[in-house]
């Protein structure tokens, strides 16, 4: 009887240790919001530094071909060089993640969006918005940035989100 109780207690300790170690690993991994924020920062850095390769890497695998010139297209659209990043990556809520998406059996996709505001050396403000799947185990080639839009602020301070913007990529369904 002592052997059975001892074996039972050892099994309980092993199970408890496995569970607690597993949850510790989960706490150390990035949340989907942190991944989205990091992607937004990478997009900003790529555009600011004219780094087409870094920007291309943010797009999902399905949309990467042809993105070599994405930074050039952005600089054809915006007037001047980026002088100021108005979005504070440390304090502002510029990214949202985990909303939307789909579940198919044990597979899922979760979407993200972010918006960052920049000002050029000519004093013109632009909003750069990104959207895509931060997680996609249904269609892994769709995981990543799917669409990037750049909006120019109107002279009266408003934004026109329905026309006159630059779009790179497409919204995948």
UniProtKB/TrEMBL annotation:
<protein>
    <recommendedName>
        <fullName>DUF5104 domain-containing protein</fullName>
    </recommendedName>
</protein>
